[in-house]
Amino acid sequence: xxxxxxxxxxxxxxxxxxxxxxxKDGSSDNDNSFNNPNNPNQGPNEPNNPPxxxxxxxxxxxxxxxxxxxxxxxxxxxxxxVIDSESLRISSVPVGFKPTVVAGAESNIFVLNEGSSxxxxxxxxxxxxxxFSVMRRANDLVVSPDGSTAFSWFNATKxxxxxxxxxxxxxVSIITADASYQLAVGFDVREVRFSENGEFALIISAxxxxxxxxxxxxxxxxxxxVSLGSGEVREVLVDATGRWxxxxxxxxxxxxxxxxxxxxxxxxELGLTPSDLDWVDANRLLATFRxxxxxxxxxxxxxxxxxxxxxxxxxxxxxxxxxxxxxxDMDDMGDMTDMDMxxxxxxxxxxxxxxxxxxxxxxxxxxxxxxxxDGLGAAEVAPxxxxxxxxxxxxxxRRAILLDLDTLEQRPLAFEKGVRGAVADSFGxxxxxxxxxxxxxxxxxxxxxxxxxxxxxxxxxxxxxxxxDNRLVLTSHYPDLATLWSDEEGLVKLYMTFGPQDGEPVLExxxxxxxxxxxxxxxxxxxxxxxxEGLGVVSSERQVFISQRHPQGRMTFIDVDDESRxxxxxxxxxAGID
Length: 578
Known about the structure:
This protein is 2% helix and 40% strand. By secondary structure, it is mostly beta strands. The strands form eleven sheets. The protein has a five-stranded mixed beta sheet with strand order 10-11-12-13-17, with no helix packed on it. Strands 2-3-4-5 form a four-stranded antiparallel beta sheet, with no helix packed on it. 43% of the residues are buried. Residues 1-48, 326-360 and 573-578 have low confidence and may be disordered.
């Protein structure tokens, strides 16, 4: 299908003849942490690059599951708790020192032991273990879709990363069923991903992407990265096959595309850098453009079909970035009706947005949406690919749009506080929005009715997609862990904990558990017996579990229907229910 592409929204805004155009440079970067001027991730502002959106990445907790068993790290015991989802009986498997990440599939469960720089592989059937040495100070772990292989490395971008002391920043450990090897890759490894079928591992670093066919690794190896071009990369996406990488970087007024098999790099010059990129599904990409640099804070989103949309964009003539001084010359541009518009100017003119200006090109596989609220440049797409929440993390922007990705209907939202990030449930029925706060203490004289009380509080908003409704919920701390319960009957519940962040002293309020019904917006807060370490869903029993710090182990099970609770303490010593 041929779709209209609004070049004005992607970098060249031309007013109608006889009018004035007011062009404005982007202002200052914002790191989403209360305008911190020392943010190391800030990049330079350029005339056609708006201040970057800086979303907090937040994911719902998903425990490692094999068959009817659930595996949960227990740092206090240096063990992994194994929950039988039918009987709720808990057993404990000793692993290494300070286990933090548990991941895996039916065939293998892998446990990262940060305190001992080891990874323990657990056989889900026999619970027998085998432990391998990995990278020094490794703090991250991912497992291939089939559970056959794991990668571990030091990730300096993790919120809890300890940046003091020595750590290897240009290598990863690969753990197979019977050995571990070291792979030399690019500097500052940020992430390890897998192609959809697990054939390729993609190691993303500051130097590019190292693409590895997992079955080829039989020993230590050098896997040099494929370059993503010159300039700081803001974001990179890889398609389901593991061959194509797309992204945005500072200094490029558009996107880049890399063939990871051949190393060929293509820069797609669009006149403006996307402020966010998100997969909608395996065949569609949502690009958001927040244009601070030209004539105000107009915002645009583009749905790009893969691969035809990208191929069509690559064939376009490069867009010439506008001259910031050209506004004074607009009156002299004369009659523009004879301009080459790249297609028949009469074709489908009825379908063109009224405010799209004078320059249009038709691009196969690209559909451009003029967003109804200006100044928005970040997006969170539901895993189901049916809805997106479009917002901004800059300047405490409180407005947002719910976008139906099937009908392209836009519905406005307004929040009580600025936004740091968002996460959606797997069905795309609800979004949970994480808000920012003013970094000042709440004074004893303040009440929740005081605007300053709200500004200085942590909070989340619950967003019901069906009705575009939202509710603000104030919290004592920044969210730490969360999981969602949902079923086909429409019950959707959020369970969120607020454990201490890096260096934060442990308080009683860190034991709080927020429970929210995302259909009715009913909420409750209860205090657990200990500080939470992990949580997840026991689907077969319609329960949620929360593991907590305790010398002999403590776990609470909550019935999702009636909220009744039972706590098992001392299961390491075969103690019973409290």
